[in-house]
Every structure is written in C-alpha cells, then in structure tokens.
Amino acid sequence: MAELLEAIMLICFGLSWPLNAYKSFKAATAVGTSWNFLALITFGYFAGIAAKLVSGSITWVLAVYIINLICLGVNWAVYFRNRRLDAQFEEKHQPA
Predict the structure, then answer these.
(1) For residue 42, with 0-12 CB atoms within 10 Å meaning exposed, 13-18 middle and 19 or more buried, which class applies?
(2) What count of other Cβ atoms lies within 10 Å of the Cβ of residue 67?
(3) What are the residues whose beta carbons fall under 8 Å from the beta carbon of 58, sequence distance 6 or more?
C-alpha cells in the first residue's frame, strides 16, 4: 500500500512537468522560470532514487521516479533554450 501511495504522489506531482515544459516552450522566454527551483526539484528526485537504491527497495515505483526525472530534464532543456532566445532578443534589440 505504501508503494501505491508513493506512486500516486509521484504521478500527481509528475503530471505538472510536461504541462510546465509545454507552457514554457510556448512562452519562449525564461523570464519567470527559476533555475533554483528546477535544481532543488532535480536534487529531490535524485535523492528519492538514491533512497530506493540504498534501501534495496527497487520496485516499479523507481520507474515513476525515472519518468518524472526525464520530464524534468525536458524542462531543463526548454529553460536553456528559452535563455538562449532571451539573449538573442536582447542582443537584437540593444540600442546602437
């Protein structure tokens, strides 16, 4: 039962990552995106995966952690893409 509840928490939390990546991609700007937040969440997922490995509790829930981490990786990619787009915009619109 504990694994099921943990998986439900991860699934509910993890559904936000694809939605956030899509919203950020469409916005085409990194303004309002916190790399500190992304880093903290990334660290949390790695800690959760490490806890599973260290405790020897390698079950199907580990797959949910990994899927969430992959989705978070997409958010990182969109963040860096948007930072590049922001820099290009700034460079293009600087006063001469």
Answers:
(1) middle
(2) 14
(3) 52
Please give the pLDDT value at position 36: 96
Tell me the per-residue pLDDT of 43-95, one tens digit each, with 9 for 90 and over: 999 999 999 999 998 999 999 999 999 999 999 999 999 999 999 999 998 88
Angle at 41 between CA 37 and CA 24, to 5 degrees: 55
Q: pTM here?
A: 0.87
d(CA 25, CA 84): 12
Measure CA 42 to chain center: 7
Distance CA 44, CA 34 (A): 16
Q: What is the CA radius of gyration of the chain?
A: 17
Spatial distance between the Cα atoms of 12 and 10, rounded to a whole number of angstroms: 6
